[in-house]
């Protein structure tokens, strides 16, 4: 991934919007952290109520060495994006879905969570405070990362008594170093991402570090990312380290059911709706890896990833290559989603929130 330089150095002072426009290398945005100006912080103590939150300068936070998140991984996060439209409007995409998903994840991890209203307010405040970092129309977006952590001290294994909700942001472009070109997936059959009864279905921070080793092994061999199989039978596809996965065969678009081991992606859900609007039959069902290998097209979806076409899948030493239709299929789903997010295609479902 391409890190992006902020040529003016650390972004601490409230520079003019035009200064960022001039100094940012917008055309080479990747998915590396670009430090923006402000973050939003809100705490919840033993009374289980979140105090009023506030913006502060982006910077380090102080934590007890025995904070629940540091010792036992009590933390969940979200990812959402702000877009700048051609006519200068600023939009969030379905932030209430992130707020609800954070509440569901917090319940699974025994954490207090902000209300939907508090969550959306914090995301809006963060986006607006960092508006000069929202890339020009059509280039990328401001990735917004809401994070909820057990910040209270614990020693024995128990939920923390204090929670910190914080939101920060970074301008981003393409997630994969391939840019918009198709990615190459490696099917992992030793490591698994999640098991039945675990927390694979929520956006717990504990779902991410364990996949790093599989990702590193795959990247060392030149692959873009890893596709995981179900932990019971090593037969059905689950998800990719950073995204959900779909296949297209004839006029049917299929993706595995979430069933607790797969993240309920907001892009996943949106693509299922868009696919139906475009006339595809959409199915949520178990997909054996052998069936995926025979698909017409395969693609990944996620907030960070967007809609990423898959160019090849390598399973047990065999590489299968896919060709994308230039007008339909994955590319059409991608252009429709992006068109809605950028305010270029009618938002008939009311997914956009103007800020
Ligand atoms: C997202 O898509 O927002 C995520 O959180 C995935 C992460 C691996 C970047």
UniProtKB/TrEMBL annotation:
One of its GO terms (biological process) is branched-chain amino acid biosynthetic process. Its cofactor is pyridoxal 5'-phosphate. It comes from Salvia divinorum. The modification N6-(pyridoxal phosphate)lysine is found at residue 203. Its EC number is 2.6.1.42. NCBIfam families: ilvE_II, PRK13357.1. It holds the Pfam family Aminotran_4. This is Branched-chain-amino-acid aminotransferase. GO terms for cellular component: cytoplasm. Keywords: Amino-acid biosynthesis, Aminotransferase, Branched-chain amino acid biosynthesis, Pyridoxal phosphate, Transferase. GO terms for molecular function: branched-chain-amino-acid transaminase activity. It comes from the Eukaryota. Gene3D superfamilies: 3.30.470.10, D-amino Acid Aminotransferase, subunit A, domain 2.
């Amino acid at each position: 991934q391409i890190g992006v330089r902020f040529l003016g150095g650390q972004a601490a002072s409230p520079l003019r919007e035009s200064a960022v426009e001039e100094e940012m290398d917008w055309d080479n945005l990747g998915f590396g952290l670009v430090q923006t100006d402000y973050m939003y912080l809100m705490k919840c103590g033993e009374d289980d109520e979140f105090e009023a939150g506030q913006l502060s300068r982006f910077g380090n936070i102080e934590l007890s060495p025995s904070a629940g998140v540091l010792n036992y991984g009590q933390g969940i996060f979200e990812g959402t994006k702000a877009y700048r439209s051609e006519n200068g409007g600023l939009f969030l995409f379905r932030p209430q879905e992130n707020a609800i998903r954070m509440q569901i994840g917090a319940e699974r991890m025994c954490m207090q969570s902000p209300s939907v209203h508090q969550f959306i307010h914090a995301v809006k405040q963060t986006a607006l405070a960092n508006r000069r970092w929202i890339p020009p129309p059509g280039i990328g977006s401001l990735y917004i990362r809401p994070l909820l952590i057990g910040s209270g001290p614990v020693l024995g294994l128990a939920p923390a008594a204090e929670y910190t909700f914080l939101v920060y942001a970074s301008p981003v472009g393409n997630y994969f170093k391939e840019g918009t070109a198709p990615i190459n997936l490696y099917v992992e059959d030793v490591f698994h991402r999640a098991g039945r009864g675990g927390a694979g279905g929520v956006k717990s921070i504990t779902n991410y570090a364990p996949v790093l080793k599989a990702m590193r092994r795959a990247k060392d061999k030149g692959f873009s990312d890893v596709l995981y199989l179900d932990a019971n039978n090593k037969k059905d596809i689950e998800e990719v380290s950073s995204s959900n996965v779909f296949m297209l065969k004839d006029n049917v678009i299929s993706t595995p059911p979430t069933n607790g081991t797969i993240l309920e992606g907001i892009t996943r859900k949106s693509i299922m709706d868009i696919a139906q609007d475009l006339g595809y039959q959409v199915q949520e069902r178990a997909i054996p890896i052998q069936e995926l290998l025979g698909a017409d097209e395969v693609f990944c979806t996620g907030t960070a990833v967007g809609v990423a076409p898959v160019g090849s899948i390598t399973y047990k030493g065999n590489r299968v290559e896919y060709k994308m239709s230039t007008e339909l299929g994955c590319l059409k789903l991608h252009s429709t989603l992006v068109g809605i997010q950028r305010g270029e295609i009618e938002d008939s479902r009311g997914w956009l929130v103007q800020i």
